[in-house]
Design brief:
By secondary structure, this protein is mainly alpha-helical. Helices cover about 50% and strands about 5% of the residues.
């Protein structure tokens, strides 16, 4: 999601994205997300992250799906070099 898109919310899109990410990335409840936001000086009810999740989670998952490598894409490793005891190996 781009920050340049117009939206009608009280908080910037970056805060909304962070709240939705917290909820999906960690085993948190909406009240936990509310407390974490409150620690950063952002006062919302526990209902607000739920509403944000309903509205923005599908958009975020679509964006993440677009970014991930496609099935069948190949990654080639050209060279591997490590240092062990100050000597290069590879």
């Amino acid at each position: 999601m781009s920050d340049a898109k117009p939206y009608r919310h009280r908080f910037p899109m970056m805060i909304i994205q962070h709240a939705v990410w917290l909820y999906h990335r960690f085993p948190l409840s909406y009240r936990d997300v509310q407390e974490l936001l409150h620690q950063r000086g952002i006062v919302v009810s526990h209902e607000t992250p739920r509403q944000w999740n309903i509205k923005f989670a599908p958009l975020l998952t679509e964006e993440l799906r677009y970014r991930e490598p496609r099935r069948g894409s190949r990654w080639f490793l050209d060279e591997v070099c490590t240092k062990i005891g100050g000597k290069k190996h590879g």
